[in-house]
Design brief:
With 174 residues, this protein is of the alpha/beta class. The chain has helices at residues 2-31, 74-85, 87-92, 121-128, 154-162, 165-173, and strands at 44-46, 52-54, 63-68, 96-101, 115-117, 133-138, 144-148. β6 (133-138) and β7 form a beta hairpin. The radius of gyration is 24 Å and the shape is globular.
Length: 174
């Protein structure tokens, strides 16, 4: 009888330890970094020192990418005004700004926001599937969190950065 009780308790102990191990393995899977559902297409540019940089080098920074035909396009000017309204908040989030002029290049004026003008705007516009105008907000993990062909309020851009895909996944875990 004693052996039967000892075997019974040993079996229960083994069952419980296997169950705990399985649950801990499941929780480790949930805690892993989420995959990026909409990875941003890569683009390149030359830095001030001439070194070629790429979008993937900017992990950890939100990126605002604007597409326009030229610097005097009405939608582009409206978008710059909207971003100017939230420039301090965007700067405090370490946001980086890029522009791809698809028809005629030029200088971005009417703003203190430092824009990087992409050297190969046509291929970037093709990769992002935009036409005459567009804006994309890329999160710190390289996910395209928002993309549209309309002028977006500066507050909306800030809200998208604050509520990125990674932030939403983290909020679901709590």
């Amino acid at each position: 009888m004693r052996r039967l009780c000892t075997c019974f308790f040993a079996a229960v102990f083994c069952f419980l330890s296997i169950t705990v191990e399985a649950q801990s393995a499941r929780s480790k899977k949930v805690a892993s970094t989420p995959s990026v559902p909409r990875p941003a297409p890569e683009f390149l540019w030359s830095g001030v020192n001439g070194k070629v940089r790429r979008l993937s080098d900017l992990r950890g920074h939100p990126v605002i990418l604007i597409f326009a035909e030229n610097p005097s396009q009405k939608q582009f000017i409206k978008q710059i005004k909207e971003l100017n309204r939230r420039s301090k908040q965007l700067a405090s989030r370490n946001a980086l700004f890029f522009v791809a002029f698809t028809k005629e290049t030029g200088v971005v004026t009417r703003t203190d926001i430092p824009f990087v003008i992409l050297p190969d705007p046509g291929s970037v516009a093709d990769a992002y599937r935009v036409g005459d105008f567009g804006i994309a907000v890329i999160s710190t993990d390289g996910n395209v969190d928002y993309a549209t062909d309309r002028v977006v309020p500066g507050q909306k851009v800030l809200d998208v950065i604050l509520n990125s895909y990674a932030a939403q996944v983290q909020a679901r875990r709590i």
